[in-house]
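Z., the sequence and structure:
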Amino acid sequence: MDFRKGRREDYPEINLIPFIDILLVIVIFLAVTTTYARFAELKINLPTSSAAQTPNPPKQIEVAVSEDGRYEIDSTVVGDASIDGLATALKKAAANENEPVVVINADARATHQSVVNVMEAARREGLTRITFATQTNP
């Protein structure tokens, strides 16, 4: 029962359902029109060369490093596994070649120090062109 005299005071109310509908339409519109770019990839512009290939590729000295720390240079086992022994074997394998490339084939479980020893021996002999051989997984 309403014992008040006069007019009833109505409170204004806001109907939220149309407002929610409009917001959902805006969210759907933004989701559909947004382009998703991948930033995880590194975009690189590699330089190009117009020069012809060199007729005589540099000599490659293949150095194999086994898991247990044994070394093999151009299919010849190195008896002395010290840095001086490796340097002597690298110098012999270079045989007065002009800037040969030292290719290091290291076992996946070879110690880091074994690979660093090869790099140090190459540095001592002035062989500055060093690369690492890898293989792709099948």
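The two ends are 85 Å apart (CA to CA). Residues 16-33 form the longest helix (18 residues).

Let me know what you think.
H.
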